[in-house]
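for the recovery benchmark. tokens below, seq after
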């Protein structure tokens, strides 16, 4: 939490974090140079549709990874070694429920655009959803707010909420209370309060030490 808010008391409950949609191939490939297939990959990312041609120059696992990343369509392609083989993973570059990935195939050279063979192994229906697309949800003093990202500005005037964790799966939500009071002037809360505390502590410490000291020569 950063910024300079108005004075007040706020209860902020993080119910969920924003996540990026992620799909992983069900098929495990023997190596990064394994041939997947040829045809056209069609990505629908949050409503934006892009076609990527896959041919003999980029039909391997690593070739498709590079083709998708070079296209700049808001999808990060990654080849993952799962220990028993390699899988291709597609992740949305932007988090939030509105940034889902859907992959379809046309022109698969094996003659079938939907089966679990050839390029159609990378169609959404033949991939596992490893992370669902989800918005962040926070409750501020009883008001529920959703956001596509984990940095939320303007909910509390002058404050940015940087969400780090939540109580996902727990029926008991963690809450914290932030009470802001002014020691002297607005927006100098911490520095003035800290300085006054330090000054008081130093004076108290010196007085305590002086009481324990014996007069010189005794």
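predicted aa per position
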């Amino acid at each position: 939490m950063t910024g300079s808010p108005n004075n007040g008391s706020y209860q902020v409950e993080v119910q969920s974090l924003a996540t990026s949609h992620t799909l992983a191939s069900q098929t495990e490939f023997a190596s990064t140079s394994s041939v997947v297939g040829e045809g056209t990959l069609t990505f629908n990312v949050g409503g934006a549709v892009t076609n990527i041609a896959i041919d003999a120059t980029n039909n391997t696992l690593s070739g498709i990874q590079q083709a998708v990343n070079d296209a700049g369509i808001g999808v990060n392609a990654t080849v993952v070694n799962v220990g028993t083989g390699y899988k291709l993973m597609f992740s949305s570059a932007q988090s939030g429920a509105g940034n889902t990935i859907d992959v379809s195939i046309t022109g698969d050279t094996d003659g079938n655009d939907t089966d679990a063979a050839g390029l159609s192994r990378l169609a959404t229906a033949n991939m596992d959803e490893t992370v669902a697309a989800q918005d962040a949800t926070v409750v501020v003093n009883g008001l529920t707010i959703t956001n596509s990202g984990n940095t939320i500005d303007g909910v509390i005037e002058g404050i940015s909420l940087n969400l780090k964790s939540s109580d996902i799966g727990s029926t008991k939500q963690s809450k914290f209370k932030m009470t802001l009071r002014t020691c002297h002037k607005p927006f100098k809360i911490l520095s003035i309060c800290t300085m006054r505390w330090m000054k008081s502590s130093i004076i108290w410490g010196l007085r305590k030490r002086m009481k324990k000291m014996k007069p010189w020569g005794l």
